[in-house]
Amino acid sequence: MNEHLKEGFRLGDLLVLPLRGQVASQHGTRHLPPKAAEVLLCLASEPGEIVSRTELLRKVWGDGQGSHEALSHAVSALRYALDDHPDNPRFIQTNPRRGYRLLVEPRLADALECQEALTAPDVPLEQQGFFSELKRRGVLETGLAYVVFGWLIMQVVDVTFDKLLVPQWLGTFVIVLIIAGFPIALVLAWFIEIVEGRAVLDRRQNPRTTKSVVSRTYVAIIGALLLATAGVYSFDYFVGLPVADTQSASTGQGGLALETPVDANSIAVLPFLNIDGSEESRIFAEGLAEDLINRLAKVPSLRVSSRSDSFSLPPGAGSEDVLQRLRVSYYLEGSVRLIANRLRVVIQLIHSREGFHLLSRSFDRDRSEFFEIQDEIAGLTVASLRVALPPDTQMILDPPGASPNLDAYLLYRRGMDALQQPVTNESIPEALNWFSEALAVDPEYAAAYAGMCTSYVSGFDVIGKAEYINEAERSCAAALMRNPNLDIVHTALGDLYFRTGRHSQAERAYERALAINVNNVDALTGLAGVYHRDQRVELAEEKYRQAIGLQPGNWRTYDTFGTFLYNSGRYEEAAENYRQVLSLDGRNIQGYGNLGAALMLSGNFAEAATAFKRSIEIQPRADAYSNLGLIHYYLGQMDDSVIAHRQAVALAPNDHLSWANLGDALSFAEQIDEALAAFRKAESLAERKLSVNSMDAETLIDLAWIRAVLDSPLEAGELISRAETIAPANPYVRFVSALIAVRSGDNQKAVSALEVAVASGYPLELLMAEPHLSSLHEHPGFMALEQSRKRK
Fold this sequence. Notes:
By secondary structure, the protein is an alpha+beta fold. It starts with 8 loop residues before the first strand and ends with a helix.
């Protein structure tokens, strides 16, 4: 028997965990009895081969032990756990009078995947609860179909009834009918099922029986509309439907000014004032406000303004400013002062429209009681808002173990401060140092492990150390083992999976993070990145815009959306988002660098150079120097280009693209030997990066050009073909494909690739300025592209 199989293996889309006695799928888990697990292990050791009943009895029960009835019972339990059917088997095939055969080749699961499954809650499929039953009975599908259908009907009523002079009461009747039919449709979907063309009561006698959800949905909607029609007609006949107040409707707009619209159940937590000005008090003040935002966001029916929006106002902002800027009914403000070992906190809950205090409390406690103060303030705030919230509103408390050692928490907060800054060679080691110190104080602090995982992943992108990915794997595994109920743990895991090319696992990790905290913007933008990489472009854009809607004051949401637009060839739209980054943070070096890149690809070289120089003034960064070098390169200023690229590789010696750009500049500056050395350095760094993520399309494109320059045209062609398969919509793929074709002497192929690149969004200005394309300037196809640029 293969002992490695006991640790966990996959059968198709199922994950089998023999040691735990579980079979996990995307729908949940099912119990796998011990004897059934041993039978499966025997079959998995010889996939595709018939294992006799006698051999199974000997291996599982021992010589002279067990019985054929016991074996049959174990196989039945195994089939149930795998959701397999003897008449149409997917996994276990019965061979009469001979034995059984496993039809699917088992695949060993990796350690991190098994660890995630082992730390997940052990909830059997048949006990997953109400939500799973809703899905099985087709209630969710019916609800969605009814909403879409009802919305379409209401739009038709709104657009056509007035023009057709249909009586107003009929429009009201239809709208009330649609609304009344919704709960009826859900009830019908719950109770009925379609069996052999007949509607019968769903008694759930065989939960594995496949049912036609479409037919069930159709019957539920039609039945709901018929019943709702009878109900609404009876209500209108005996009671009467509401009619418009014509006197009120005819009132002009010249009266009182409209009040600022606000949600009745909405609140903001403003930044707390740091009275003594100490660094520790700053961390207490910011941490208290942020944690209160997170806790209040878990209260049902309470809408909470995001941190970035709330923190756009200063401490002690007036109620009028809060009302106009944040449009919330209530806001919480306060102050923090640390005197010796005593923490003094004052909080005030204020009605934003009236300006009156609903709650004012002060706390004078030992600093070690910080988390107890958080709990008490959150509870007092919700209690004071009971009049506005539903009676059954309850606080959703953090999971057990969420409150760490206080000193560890303070160190963790400092790490998060460093991690929230633009990523640089300095910010990553700083963040890692703070998280390491937090873990030295509290080795079980899951959030600090998640912070380290995120830092290592971000550091790999900037610093380029491949060992960072191994450290990220260990940190994420440690975080998951200690607390699988934290959304930030799964977000960090998603970042790790995404950067290493495991997109389906990244998608699951981000979705799990959002299931824990629907307002996790980092998980939302991470999920959008997965969608974009998998060519689900419209869905990706929707998620990016959703993230901006959740946190319109967070510069990172605009930055990530701008990068999505940039990679889609929408450079001017990307530039607008990067300008929004700078409107929120005027000294954001990442914002200036990205704005310059977008302006450069839009052909606006002068403004792009200004943005890069501004970024360098704030803090020298490799990407800013590299892009400034490209500006000089396109303008034919090769000596200046070489100087800028040398600065870039000095700041980022492990960045393959900086070395490749230096190689291009050196070759046109006629420093051939140095150029070849730069390209060989770029080649080794790109290969090392691809060893971590072989699906990295951008690095594949770069390496393809490097290999072409180093006279390996066949390898260059293979690499660019792989990149085209992974990212067919990326215009840069076609552009580099054209460069490779020019170098091979195939000018017609080069022009064809450039035509596709331009159609995909690659800027004509850069084509005209590219020195490597000078041999095409007399080609009719290239001249046609130039003429199209002049016509614009």
